[in-house]
Predict the structure.
Amino acid sequence: MTCTTIDLHNFLRTRRSVRRFKPDPVPDSIIQSIITTATYAPSAHNRQPWRFVVVTDLSVKARFADAMAEDFERDLLQDRVAPEKIQAQINRSKERMTAAPVVILLCLDMSEMDAYPDARRRQAERMMAAQSVAAAGLQLLLAAHAEGLGGVWVCSPLFTQETIKSTLDLPETWEPQGMFFVGFPKDEPRVREKRHLESVCIRR
């Protein structure tokens, strides 16, 4: 397949965040393909610090959602959110996770990154690794888009890392960073307005 420059730009610009999916399962071959493509993202020192956890079993998704909900509720109570609003937010969060045909957890593994004696360079190294993982996350969403799938990136795992690691029995070095809900779109996602280039870019 050949792709013109215009085709490629149009493909990149038509990816949308999708939160509602058809119940149709996503074939394992497609899941494997989009994750493989994600691993072709650039990474600091080529250490490839990304790790992926694929969850398709409904019982595992439900257990995963329930565990995260406990931490979510604790944080909302601390923020003094009204109980009825807390329950509504928790229910919406759990429903989104269990309704998505595929849930992919994106993790960071620092074990093969460089180690430094000073805090400044340790912080920079962690940032480089996190940027690498984020690049893989974007590539995953674009690969899903290429397969006609929709997806959305949520950052809630950052607020409940230890609970997730315990619930999914993850290796100790795997740090949850984000999560993707993936499936065949139920609706056509609406186009959101983008900021004018002049407001986000300067030239020197």
About this structure: The chain has seven helices and four strands.
